[in-house]
Amino acid sequence: MKITIYSNLKKCPSDYKAALNEYIKRISAFAELKVIYRNKSTTVLKRKKDSFNIFVSCDTNSPSSVQFADMINNITLSGYSSINFLMAPDMAEKSENDYTISLSSFTLSDELSDIVMAEQIYRALCINNNITYHK
């Protein structure tokens, strides 16, 4: 499974990089996670038949951890080999999205949103693999 977070940032600030890299390392036991930062070529995501696009918005309800884990599991079981999380509103408007979720009812900075998204992906993969999330 390949998972990509299309960030709304041009680059990851150094003070957030360690946290994001920690989740990328943890997720590597289950899937390949990449974070793509904005540039001119990432304004529109070209649709691939084996990928599932999820727009991350603040204008909808956020799923519980178990609901999100179920969603990831169902996407995988449906034959998709990659999941794309679109964090940039303008990119999502121009791309075909299969689903929309929210991370929180709070307004989060773009830097924090990337980390929270990675953490929720890790949590979902732990739930789906019957691994205790909290140590």
How would you summarize the topology of this molecule?
Elements (H helix, E strand, L loop, with lengths): L1 E5 L7 H14 L4 E5 L14 E6 L8 H13 L4 E5 L2 H6 L4 E3 L8 H19 L7
Parallel strand pairs: 1-2, 1-4, 3-4, 3-5
Helix pairs in contact: 1-4, 2-4
Summarize the helix and strand pattern as letters.
Answer: EHEEHEHEH
Question: Under the CATH scheme, which architecture would be assigned?
Answer: 3-Layer(aba) Sandwich
Instruction: Name the CATH class.
Output: Alpha Beta
CATH topology: Alpha/beta knot
Major beta-sheet overview: 5 strands, parallel
Helix percent band = 25-40%
Strand content: 15-25%
Describe the structure.
- With 135 residues, this protein is of the alpha/beta class.
- It has a single domain (2-128), classed as 3-Layer(aba) Sandwich (Alpha/beta knot).
- Helices cover 39% and strands 18% of the residues.
- The chain is built from four helices and five strands, in the order βαββαβαβα.
- A five-stranded parallel beta sheet has the order 2-1-4-3-5.
- α1 runs parallel beside α4 and α2 (65-77) packs across α4.
- The protein is globular.
